[in-house]
Amino acid sequence: MKKAIALVSLTAAIAASSQAGAVQITLACGTVGQELQLCKDGAARWAKKTGNTVKVFESPNLTNDRLGLYQQQLAAKSDAIDVYQLDIIWPGLLSQHFVDLKGKIPAAEVNEHFKGIIAADTVDGKLVAMPWFTDAGLLYYRTDLMKKYGYNAAPKTWAELATMAKKIQDGEKKTSSTFTGFVFQGKNYEGLTCDALEWLVSFGGGTIVDDSGKITVNNANAAKAMDTAASWVKTISPAGVTTYGEEEARGIFQSGNAAFMRNWPYAWALGQSADSKVKGKIGVAPLPSGGNGAAATLGGWNLGVSMYSKNQAAAIDLVRYLTGADEQKLRAIEGAYNPTRPALYKDQAILKANPFFGSLLDVFTSAVARPSGPTKLKYNQVSQAFAGAVSDVMAGKTKGAAAVKKLETDLARIKGRGW
Ligand code: GLC
C-alpha cells in the first residue's frame, strides 16, 4: 500500500515538474467555416503535448475586420495575443510587429513549404510568418444539375458559365423560387478584390499594379471583365450577391440553392459533410476563362509571433507544431485546408478526402498573387480602391471603362512618389 502511494506521488511530481515552466499562449484564430474548431483542436493537441495552455481568441469572420483589430492590438504593443493568423497579403503591412523566424526555425523545416509562400512571408529578409494553409479560387458546380440539363463538363469560359447558369436557374426556379445560377463574393471587401482579380487576369486585364509597381488597371480588358461581372447581377446571380462574403455564398450553395459558386477549398469539406444538401453532388473545376486562360487568386493564412509576446519561445513552438506536417495533414482531411507543404499533395489519405488537390494541383501552384508585394504598406488602400471601383460597376453606378480610368487616378494618388 505504502509503495503504491509513493508511486502515485512520484507520478504527480513528474507531472508537476514538466508543467513547471508551463505558460499560457493566446492564439488568434479565424472563424470562417470550420476554421475555429480546427484551430482549437490543433492548439489543444499542442497544449497536451507540451503541458502549456492555449487561449483561443476568436477573430472576426471578414479578413478586413481582422486586420483592423490586429492593427489596433499591434499599434498598442499589446501582449494580449502571442500568435496571430496572418493573411498572405499582410506580411508587408505588419512585418515590423513580428518576430523574425529566420534562424529560430531550422532552415530545413522552412524549406519544406512552397517556396512562393515563404517568399510572400519574407519581407526585407525577415521571415514574418510560417505558412499554415494556402488558398486558391475554385469553381464549384452541381454535378446532378449539370447532368439534368444536358451538360457534361464544367464551363471553360465565363460566357459558357452564364449560359449554363441561366438555363439551370430558369429550370429550377419553376419548383424552387429562390434558386440562383451563380454565387460569389460580391460584397465590397477583400474577398471582392480576390474574385475580381480572377476576372481581370482571365480577360487579360492584368493584376491592377504589376510586379514593378506600375499601375496597369486602366485597360480595355480590365474594363470588360468588370462589365461582364456586372451583367451577372440580377440575371444569373441574385441582387443580394453584392452583399455576399464567402460564408453567404457557401450557405446558398450548400443548401442546394445555386448551380455554381466561386469559393475557396474549405467549402468542399463542408459541402460534403453529413448535413449538406449537396453532399455527393459537387464538382470542382478551375474558374472559367475570359479569353486569357483560367485564373485563381492566391490566398492563404500564416502564423506569426508577436514581438510583444512575453512567451516568444513557446509561441514559436506552437507555430512550428501547427504548421508541421501532421497538423496540416489532419486539417486537410477534416477541413479541406490546403497544405503549404508540397510533399502532402502526394499523401493518399489527403487526396482521397480532396480529389481535386491532385487533379487541380496546377491551380494551386500557379495562383495569381494580389499586388501586396509591389504596393507594400499601401496594399490595403489599393485593394479598397479596387474593390470599391468594381463594386460601383456591379451596382450599375458606372461602366468598366470609366471605372478603370478613375481607379488609375485614385491609385496614382495613393502611390504618390512611390509605394
Ligand atoms: C481567404 C483567403 C485570404 C483572402 C480572403 C478574402 O480567407 O485565404 O487570403 O484575403 O479569403 O476574403
Largest sheet: 4 strands, mixed
Query: Hey, roughly how much beta strand do the residues contain?
Result: 5-15%
Q: Going by CATH, what is the homologous superfamily of the largest domain?
A: Periplasmic binding protein-like II
For the record, give the distance between the C-alpha atoms at the N and C termini, rounded to a whole number. Answer: 75 Å
Tally of separate helices: 20
> What is the CATH architecture assignment of the largest domain?
3-Layer(aba) Sandwich
Which class do the helix and strand fractions yield?
alpha+beta
The percentage helix is 40-55%
| Poorly predicted parts | 1-18
User: How many domains make up the coordinates?
Assistant: 2
The main sheet orders its strands as 8-9-7-10
The number of strands is 11
- CATH class categorisation of the largest domain: Alpha Beta
Rg, nearest Å: 23 Å
User: Which whole number gives the mean pLDDT?
Assistant: 95
The ligands bound in this entry are: alpha-D-glucopyranose
Q: According to CATH, what is the topology of the largest domain?
A: D-Maltodextrin-Binding Protein, domain 2
Shape: globular
